[in-house]
């Protein structure tokens, strides 16, 4: 891996990524309000093993020692998210000072350790009171989001250099509002397409608030861009893959970078009576210029035509091994293809890989975890990223999902993505071999 030295620019950001609900715990502390993930995880049958984020990694209390681990590994950046319901317990109305104080402490501790924070303003944990007002299907939420972001910018904007408005609007829309597997657990096409539009609009309003404040940092959005390939080179399979790409990728990329919804998907949704109401000026707001784009990449899916599937008439086939513990295909070349596609089809702005990583069936033995598969996974994805840089992609950083094993949404604590193993009953942290490997890798870059 020493050959990689020249492949990544010297000021490249190397970090890990986490999200508030997945690691913080302390759900009833210091005035935090409930979020839709609290209500969802406490609904029987929604999460594997009945797990909840009540305690998670107890990061709310252990953030300082967790930052110490990052420093030990040699990381220079850290992406996490801010919990809206810590700042505004009801999503709007009275501000909770103690919530801001936590992110103050977190920020200062990171900066003192020489680690740049990159904060996501929304990683799916909507204040529960706003779900009671209709959730993201209600257009008013876009203004509440703007107001919340403006407060956070005002408070931390002097110190934080990297901001992300939303994490993976496609996953939040589809898993939460179309397939019902994530909070808020809804399954309705109309709600889903409205949700997507309002999330994008909320993103646009947050950009406005940020630009108006004249803050020194840079602002982007994180999209989950996976790689979809037709099972065969026939018209029907190509169209199927295109629809899946439309649902997950282009429905977000096109309005952000081309100021329009993709024509094929718009027509499809209109034919089914499920296109969202778009008002004059919406697309201008959504497509305001960004300082960077964050990309989360995890897998490839091979898509075939399937007339039985409503609206899309497409489905994913069995994943091709080797697979991760999530059942996701390990396909590093997909990362290369996604990065080069963004440059070719959408934008030249700087890119960050804001998430990439894998869960494996890790077992703690003698105070460590032997995880050669994770090391191999990271090595091969780093190589794909390096190849994209060599071919002209302006990639500025790489954030591994994740620092710690954590609450993996509907899978609960059963799926372990961390470089660091968390023994939940004791909250002890143990370095996996991949964390040691990463430390050596980063040391060799310097
Ligand atoms: C992404 C999410 C992140 C994490 C990884 C495994 O879709 O953004 O929170 O759960 O998947």
What does this structure look like?
It is a single chain. The protein is α/β, with parallel strands linked by helices and 446 residues long. The chain has one domain: Glycosidases (TIM Barrel), CATH 3.20.20.80. It has 15 helices and 13 strands. It has helices spanning 20-23, 36-41, 59-73, 84-87, 97-112, 128-132, 141-156, 169-177, 189-213, 235-258, 263-271, 282-286, 332-346, 372-390, 433-445, and strands spanning 13-17, 77-81, 116-122, 162-167, 218-224, 227-230, 292-296, 300-305, 314-316, 351-356, 395-400, 420-423, 428-431. Strands 1-2-3-4-5-7-10-11 form an eight-stranded parallel beta barrel, surrounded by five helices. α8 (169-177) packs antiparallel against α9. The longest helix has 25 residues, at 189-213. The radius of gyration is 21 Å and the shape is globular. The protein starts with 12 loop residues before the first strand and ends with a helix. The structure holds beta-D-fucopyranose. Beta-D-fucopyranose binds at residues 19, 22, 167-168, 171, 224, 296, 355, 401, 408-409, 417.
């Amino acid at each position: 891996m020493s050959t990689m030295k020249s492949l990544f620019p010297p000021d490249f950001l190397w970090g890990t990524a986490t999200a508030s609900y997945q690691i913080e715990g302390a759900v009833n502390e210091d005035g935090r309000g409930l979020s839709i993930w609290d209500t969802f995880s406490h609904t029987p049958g929604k999460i594997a093993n009945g797990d909840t984020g009540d305690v998670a990694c107890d990061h709310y209390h252990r953030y300082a020692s967790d930052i110490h681990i990052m420093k030990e590994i040699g990381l220079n950046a850290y992406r996490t998210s801010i919990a809206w319901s810590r700042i505004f317990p009801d999503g709007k109305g009275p501000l909770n000072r103690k919530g801001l104080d936590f992110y103050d402490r977190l920020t200062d501790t990171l900066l003192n350790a020489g680690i740049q924070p990159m904060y996501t303003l929304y990683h799916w944990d909507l204040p529960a009171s706003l779900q009671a007002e209709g959730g993201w299907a209600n257009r008013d939420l876009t203004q509440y989001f703007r107001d919340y972001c403006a407060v956070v910018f005002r408070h931390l904007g002097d110190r934080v250099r990297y901001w992300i408005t939303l994490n993976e609007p496609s996953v939040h829309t589809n898993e939460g509002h179309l397939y019902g597997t994530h909070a808020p657990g809804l399954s309705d096409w109309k709600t889903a397409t409205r949700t997507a539009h309002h999330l994008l609009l909320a993103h646009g309003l947050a950009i406005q608030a940020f630009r108006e404040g004249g803050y020194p940092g840079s602002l982007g959005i994180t999209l989950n861009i996976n790689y979809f390939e037709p099972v065969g080179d026939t018209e029907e399979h190509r169209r199927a893959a295109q629809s899946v790409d439309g649902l997950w990728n282009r429905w977000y990329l096109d309005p952000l970078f081309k100021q329009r919804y993709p024509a094929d998907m718009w027509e499809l949704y209109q034919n089914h009576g499920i296109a969202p109401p778009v008002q004059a000026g919406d697309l201008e707001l959504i497509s305001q210029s960004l300082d960077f784009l964050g990309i989360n990449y995890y897998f490839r899916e091979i898509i075939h035509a399937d007339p039985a599937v409503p609206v899309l008439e497409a489905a994913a086939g069995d994943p091709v091994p080797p697979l991760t513990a999530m059942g996701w295909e390990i396909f590093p070349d997909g990362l290369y293809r996604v990065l080069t596609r963004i440059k070719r089809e959408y934008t030249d702005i700087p890119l960050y890989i804001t998430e990439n990583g894998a869960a494996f069936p890790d077992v703690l033995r003698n105070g460590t975890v032997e995880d050669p598969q994770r090391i191999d996974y990271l090595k091969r994805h780093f190589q794909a990223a390096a190849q994209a840089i060599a071919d002209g992609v302006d990639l500025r950083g790489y954030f591994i999902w994740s620092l710690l094993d954590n609450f993996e949404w509907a899978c609960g604590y059963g799926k372990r993505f961390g470089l660091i193993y968390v023994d939940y009953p004791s909250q002890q942290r143990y370095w996996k071999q991949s964390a040691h490997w990463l430390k050596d890798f980063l040391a060799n870059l310097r």
